[in-house]
Amino acid sequence: MKISYKFMNSSIKKQIWLSILIVTTFTSLLFISFTYYMYEKLYIEKQVEALQLQGVQLKDMYYETSLETFSQQLKVLDESLESSIIYTDDPMLLGSGSPVHMFEGQNLISFQERQQLLEGETVQIVRLHERLNQEILAVVVPLLSQDQLVGAIFLYLPLEAISNVFQPIRLVLYVGIPTAIIIVLLAGFTISNYVTKPILDIKNVTEKMAKGDYSSRIKVKRENELSHLALSINKLSYTLEKVEEERRGFLANVSHELRTPLSYMKGYTEGFEEGLVDREKYILTVQKEVDRMERLVHNLLDLAQLEGDSYPIEFHPLVLSELIVDVVSRLEWVANEKNVSFEHTLNEEIIVFADRDRLDQVLTNIVQNAITYSKQFSSIFIELTTNNGKANIIIRDEGIGIPEKDLPHIMERFYRVNKARTRADGGTGLGLAIAEQIIKKHQGSINIHSKINEGTTVTISLPIFELE
């Protein structure tokens, strides 16, 4: 499990860094490509078009003016334009040697390009001029007379002049992009830590949970999807911690509850074998403790089924007043032995959708408790009323009451206010826990209020069954 966590963390960091690297590389390449596209495709082509336009204008000027006027205008244009102009009336010189001193000894056009001029085609040239140690962009315009090549105009522009325009952009490429990459990498490092830190916290807490430590919590500092996950894990950890506490307490209580009757049976068996206990007392004691263990096992099975979905419950319309009267009649002789009387006020029209046997089990348990803890010559009051669409069964005694500190725990499994007295009465400490689960299965609730030496009031609320 630990290996998979490390792999997960490493994988997430790698994915973040890989994503940043891909985006940065793609953006840089896109910017560089766009810059060179602007330089090569747009600006240089624009210069070529400008040179071609100048060549056409000079060609028209050649045909429209005298050679002397044309030569004078060439000098003026050569000094005013960014491009340089070479005119020759012997095009052969362009291929065999330059007509201009600065290009002397260098062929400005190739044989193939001279053939294009002979055919009347304008030639576009990009040449590395050895003497200037730079590239030049040139356009050569043929001058024809009666389909014969009688001259040529050579217009050229050093590419350095063009590239100087893009010098600020080169500065951005050489300085700005590396700087941007460093900033992006630093931002990526911060982002990766920002993203993976909560994941590492979650990993650490879940690892502790896997080892059985549910006390750790994830600190939530911001509101996002990971914080929602962290809060869910904190809630799960808290729940598991409570479940673990209840499990340990449950095992301890079950062990204690089983150990007590077993100790009794073992002690009395040894006493019987040694002749210290007579046969009748031995049989009665063993029978009593076996009955206690049987009740405990049955209650545990009921509670386990109630907390799952396997507890058998059959819902039918039920007149609550009839059930209450049956329970009171069955337990009246127990109350009479203690000089406890019943007083009840029942609404006979209240019907609920419930399992009669299970509600009988709940009412029997609560009324038995009321009898057990009632004082001599006191009364138990039972009332059945309605309130806000609920049927309320109110059972109030005038008994010894429950201490305030014990009330929040009274529904817990094996919880006893007076452990010694309850055990002597044969209780398992599971009755109220089972009753609460049964009422929950009926979409109802149980509330207990009590005061010392004044009595206890138990209120059971159930949804009323509406006849259609």
Keywords:
single chain, 468 residues, five-stranded mixed sheet, 12 helices, 11 strands, disordered N terminus
Structure description:
- 58% of the residues lie in helices and 18% in strands.
- The strands form three sheets. The chain has a five-stranded mixed beta sheet, covered by helices on one side. It has a four-stranded antiparallel beta sheet with strand order 1-4-3-2, sandwiched between helices.
- α6 (167-210) packs parallel to α7 (225-273) and α10 runs antiparallel to α12.
- The longest helix is centred in the first third of the chain and has 63 residues, at 2-64.
- It has helices spanning 2-64, 67-80, 92-96, 111-118, 159-165, 167-210, 225-273, 279-306, 320-337, 356-372, 419-424, 431-441; strands at 84-88, 123-129, 134-145, 148-158, 316-319, 341-346, 351-354, 379-387, 390-397, 445-451, 455-463.
- The chain is of the alpha+beta class.
- The chain has twelve helices and eleven strands.
SSE order, one letter for each helix or strand: HHEHHEEEHHHHEHEEHEEHHEE
Instruction: Specify Rg, calculated over alpha carbons.
Output: 52 Å
Helix content: 55-70%
Shape: rod-shaped
Share of residues in strands: 15-25%
Biggest beta sheet attributes:
5 strands, mixed
Compact description:
It is built from twelve helices and eleven strands. It has helices at residues 2-64, 67-80, 92-96, 111-118, 159-165, 167-210, 225-273, 279-306, 320-337, 356-372, 419-424, 431-441, and strands at residues 84-88, 123-129, 134-145, 148-158, 316-319, 341-346, 351-354, 379-387, 390-397, 445-451, 455-463. Residues 1-9 and 420-424 have low confidence and may be disordered.
